[in-house]
Design a protein that fits this description.
Blueprint lengths: L1 E8 L3 E10 L2 E2 L3 E7 L2 E3 L5 E3 L1 H7 L6 E2 L12 E3 L2 E3 L1 H20 L6 E5 L5 H13 L6 E4 H9 L10 E7 L3 E9 L4 E10 L3 H13 L3 H15 L4 E3 L3 E3 H16 L10 E5 L6 H10 L3 E4 L6 H9 L25 H5 L36
Parallel strand pairs: 1-10, 10-11, 12-17, 17-18
Antiparallel strand pairs: 1-2, 2-3, 2-4, 5-6, 5-7, 8-9, 12-13, 13-14, 15-16
């Protein structure tokens, strides 16, 4: 069965979705991976991600990397063990590791792969990641802003008319990306963007739990993450000790209001789309509705909107429906320029005089974590 793959490497989670083709039709995107955004690079350059990487971090914490995707293009490399690696190389091998995991489950390689990136990225950063992906065995991967990927997922259930201006706010665990898009004849155009650090909701809730119930702050930090997620769907949680959604919302309302503030700068909006894991908190939608004079739309599964949209965008253009957005966002009014030239006015920053370790593992060196086969699998 032919399929395409969309990958979203976030600050806290890595997510992947596929669109499969059966006959003449493409199916709806299906999320096939969601794991912690952590990477372990062994001494022989073998890489693993997610829970296995976190387990190995207990033995070799100096060989674990986080936040590498946002650092693509930074002058300072990342030190793992006694080697220096470029962030784009780490992001590329994570994408390759995910692609290999999916290929094993799907019985073959994806026909196309799309990878999201922050809307603030310029052509310089995209070109670095393109080259790193090529070196990691993923030539021709498609790169698109996560806001446009989220807008692609919106097109499955909402009609967006030509000329409509759409605000997309992605509230992730590490960053908040806000972008203004305009719908052209067959594309979304990126008109503006804003980036800020995500509010530390887990830390605030953990401090509140310690003040109320006592206990180890480090242990309550992990518990607060689960409590926050449960309060998105339940009105109260026993942690132990009863914590209500109203109590939690009173704590975090000022922080969420600040995170949504960039939306107020955009004028003449047709709608605002909320995505990202934090968008599941009911207060987020209420605050956005109070601040904006337009429809506020919440993705049915906001945490996976970007990877699902990337999978939709990865479908071959000739076979995608006319309403689908182009894989590379085009900008009208600049016929003599390609998209990268329009987006990127900054010069290429100089590289520091350091020795970087090339991380170019062929696909066979992406370590696969196979589930042991047992008799229950055949029943």
């Amino acid at each position: 069965m032919r399929y395409v793959l969309g990958i979203d490497i976030g600050g806290s989670r890595i997510k992947a979705a596929v669109c499969r083709r059966a006959g003449e039709r493409w199916g709806e995107p299906e999320v096939v991976y969601s794991l912690e955004s952590v990477l372990h690079v062994d001494a022989d350059a073998t890489v693993v991600a997610g829970p296995e990487a976190r387990r190995r971090a207990q033995v070799a914490p100096d060989r674990v990397a986080r936040g590498f995707a946002r650092r693509v293009g930074d002058d300072v490399p990342m030190l793992l063990g006694d080697e220096l690696y470029r962030p784009e190389s780490l992001a590329a091998v994570v994408a390759g590791w995910v692609a290999d995991q999916v290929a094993e489950n799907e019985g073959g390689d994806a026909a196309r792969i799309a990878l999201t990136h922050p809307p603030s990225w310029t052509g310089y950063r995209r070109s670095l990641l393109h080259d790193a992906l090529h070196d990691a065995g993923i030539p021709g991967a498609l790169l698109l802003p996560n806001a446009i990927a989220a807008a692609e997922s919106l097109l499955v259930r909402e009609r967006v008319e030509t000329g409509d201006r759409l605000a997309v706010c992605r509230l992730g665990g590490e960053h908040v990306d806000t972008a203004l898009l305009r719908r052209a004849a067959a594309t979304f155009e990126l008109l503006g963007h804003d980036e800020q650090l995500a509010p530390a909701l887990d830390d605030v809730l953990a401090e509140h739990l310690v003040a109320r119930f006592g206990g180890d702050p480090a242990q309550l930090r992990d518990l607060s993450t689960e409590t926050k997620e449960l309060l998105s769907t339940s009105r109260d949680v026993d942690v132990p000790g009863r914590v209500t959604r109203t109590e939690f919302e009173r704590l975090v309302e000022p922080m969420l209001a600040m995170a949504l503030a960039p939306l107020r700068r955009f004028e003449d909006l047709s709608a605002a789309l909320l995505v990202g894991g934090v968008a599941r908190i009911p207060l987020v939608s209420r605050l956005a509705e109070d601040a904006l004079d337009c429809r506020v739309l919440l993705d049915p599964d906001p945490a996976t909107a970007a990877c699902r949209g990337a999978a939709l965008a990865a479908r071959p253009p000739a076979e995608a429906p006319p309403s689908s957005t182009a894989l590379v966002p085009r900008v009208t009014g600049y016929p003599e320029l390609d998209p990268d030239e329009v987006y990127d006015a900054e010069p290429t920053p100089p590289r520091p005089p350091v020795v970087l370790t090339p991380l170019e593992p062929p696909r066979r060196r992406f370590e696969l974590t196979r589930r042991p086969r047992n008799e229950d699998d055949d029943e």
